[in-house]
Amino acid sequence: WDLQAAEQLPKSLRVFYAAVIRNLLRDAWRRLNRELLSAQQQQQQTAFSHSFMNVALNIARVSQCMYDYEDGIGVLEHESMDRIYSLIAEPIQTA
């Protein structure tokens, strides 16, 4: 996706594409959460270990964060790195 090409698109198309991506992300999170919750509730044996599933979930979290708040490549601020660090190195503790 070329940034210059995106800037040349009419605003209505950019808004439409953003909504499509948002809906795809929402649906993917719903499926992921449903699968993880189902496996936990049923104490199912899965093809993947618990630690692998946590890594996959953390990668999804980082991807979502980078999509929402940009990737930090074009911006020389430390804000993106701080967000990534907080997602991976300091995960939210669950009860």
TrEMBL record:
InterPro entries: Isoprenoid_synthase_dom_sf. The lineage of its organism: Eukaryota, Viridiplantae, Streptophyta, Embryophyta, Tracheophyta. It comes from Nymphaea colorata. This is Terpene synthase metal-binding domain-containing protein. It comes from the Eukaryota. SUPFAM superfamilies: Terpenoid synthases.
